[in-house]
Write a structure and sequence with these properties.
The structure is a homodimer of 338-residue chains. Chain A has two domains: 120 residues, NAD(P)-binding Rossmann-like Domain (Rossmann fold); 169 residues, Dihydrodipicolinate Reductase, domain 2 (2-Layer Sandwich), CATH 3.30.360. Chain A contains eleven helices and 13 strands. In chain A, the strands form two sheets. Chain A has an eight-stranded mixed sheet, covered by helices on one side. Chain A has a five-stranded parallel sheet with strand order 2-1-3-4-5, sandwiched between helices. The radius of gyration of chain A is 19 Å and the shape is globular. Chain A starts with 5 loop residues before the first strand and ends with a helix. The interface between A and B is large, with 52 and 52 residues.
């Protein structure tokens, strides 16, 4: 029997760390310690401590030098993630990093170099796909051929701004990376995944500030048009979720196939059925609603299994690179720097 | 009291003529005669005769020369509509034409010239907005300020192909005009309307054939990205409605505002509530579903009233021109002719 995977956490600035760590723990991994950066608010440390009282806080260096650790997780501030990931790989560890995996083309080049030099793996946890039950069900329906060949995706990714809860880096373009790099990262991932594209380009990209005149540098709206060798994609993201919505965002994914389509209402079926993870299908024989709760999140056990077996079932390295590359290209294009 | 508006019909090749004529009759107009082209199948004439047994069939020329007629309606073959419209205007009549109002830039220029020369009005019946109750309710909610300022629209316009029922011209690019000119016409109209844009440009446009390899010239997929002086828009149209959907298309319109959003599920709430005309609202105070059936279609009575009062409440002439211009530009861009 394989040894239990030991993981370490470096960076807890985004609460995605809980989805990442819980996913891996549920899949059998053991967390042997956690560390954070100098800026992380004590409040966040306290919540983490209370969530995992048996996991000791350590220095990042101690975790990097612990040879029993096979995988480092990080949800540090966006712009700090690549440094942590590269250090981890150069210490012989694989990496699972919150999205965005990095915020600049230079960082991405350095990450690619570190992967090439070390043979380690750099995986990005695109939680809006990998930590969502209804995507698992959608994958199954697509594999069964229910909608024919996928030809296009339309992703809507609204988010609640929650200004009063946000740290300084949330408002700093260079630290969060811009809206297309940051919350749109999920959309590039889903587009590539559902269309099965291994090559893709950004056709058009746009950012805007439509509702936050008091923060002129903030990007509260973004959209991209994509073309891949497996299909096309459009995505819109924003920070405009109204206060009356009972969750943080009405995340939707419409997957158009040659013989039917799927609509995922991930977090809410607005003024409809209760709960999360709604999948709607129309195909040649009818329409159907699926409650996908409990469909599972196989990403985490696949990630562990890939380490043991040398396989690439959780996420191809090339996919993590391409999704990130598209995000950085779109951001640059929208900002007029491409 | 104003005299009852007398209308004539020239061209019944698309069944949109029924929505147009019924809308005007319900608003008080009287149809004094109908004519069709030489190619119109006898089957269509028979259905029209049975629908309006008291309305005499006449020659197009007789209708054009009937001075008692104030408005000519046409749902002739797409590429034939401009000729009919121009003849009607040059005979002193206003025109209400099915979408697309024309299929080439030359036709549009000729129409504009006829409007300028005659002072008559050329209105396009974009039925996916003007003949839909839930749009009327959406307009009211937007006017009440429920979603703040509209910043973007996302329109999905899938249609059922129904190959076995289609006439030859349906498959002829030059006669139907291409998918962006034809079924996407509705989307340009809705984008301009909901964002309140009076100037706009096509940012990107694409057409494809993804599911009809036996008809290589057919366009079964199209998408456009739009930018206007009142907001942005994305639209996708296709001929891929699966047979299992209980209606011809799951037409959706998502209207994003600075303080909330609306989703219109026009013809079906897939695997949800029964009936048509569903409006979903999320704003600062909550989420809400509206059954918009019965909200009305004020376009038709406004069109009549505009003729009487010299107003432009049904559709500004500039709007009909701009929506058509965008469609033709998008089609040319997608076909590599721009």
């Amino acid at each position: 029997m394989a040894t239990r995977l030991r993981v370490g956490v470096i960076g807890i600035d985004h609460n995605h760390i809980y989805g990442m760590l819980n996913g891996l723990r549920n899949a059998g991994a053991e967390c042997v310690g956690w560390a954070t950066g100098p800026e992380t608010p004590e409040k966040l440390c306290q919540v983490f401590r209370e969530s995992y009282p048996d996991t000791p806080q350590k220095s990042a260096q101690a975790l990097l030098e612990d040879d029993s650790i096979g995988l480092i997780l990080s949800a540090a501030v966006n712009s700090d993630r690549s440094g942590i990931a590269i250090a981890a790989m150069r210490h012989g560890k694989d990496v699972l990093v919150d999205k965005p995996g990095c915020t600049t083309q230079t960082q991405l080049a350095e990450i690619k170099q570190a992967v090439a030099d070390t043979g380690r793996r750099w995986t990005v946890c695109f939680s809006e796909r990998l930590d969502v039950d209804c995507v698992t069900l959608a994958d199954r329906l697509i594999t069964e051929g229910r909608i024919g060949k996928v030809v296009q995706t339309v992703g809507l990714g609204p988010h609640r701004r929650n200004s009063h809860l946000r740290p300084d880096w949330f408002w700093d373009r260079n630290r969060y990376g811009g809206i297309l790099t940051d919350i749109c990262a999920h959309q590039f991932d889903q587009f590539l995944h559902f269309t099965g594209s291994t090559e893709a380009r950004v056709v058009s990209a746009h950012i805007g500030n439509v509702a936050n005149p008091d923060r002129p540098d903030f990007q509260d709206f973004g959209e991209v048009l994509l073309e891949g060798n497996g299909g096309r994609g459009y995505a819109r993201v924003d920070w405009l979720t109204p206060d009356g919505l009972p969750t943080w965002g009405d995340g939707r994914m419409t997957i158009l196939g040659t013989e039917g389509y799927l609509e995922l209402r991930k977090y809410i079926d607005i003024s409809g059925r209760p709960g999360t993870d709604h999948v709607f299908l129309a195909d040649r024989s009818g329409v159907e609603h699926f409650d996908a709760r409990g469909a599972g999140k196989p990403f985490f056990s696949r990630l562990i299994s890939d380490r043991e077996n040398g396989t690439e079932t959780a996420m191809r390295q090339a996919h993590a690179f391409l999704a990130t590359e598209l995000a950085l290209q779109a951001q640059a294009l929208a900002e007029g720097n491409l």
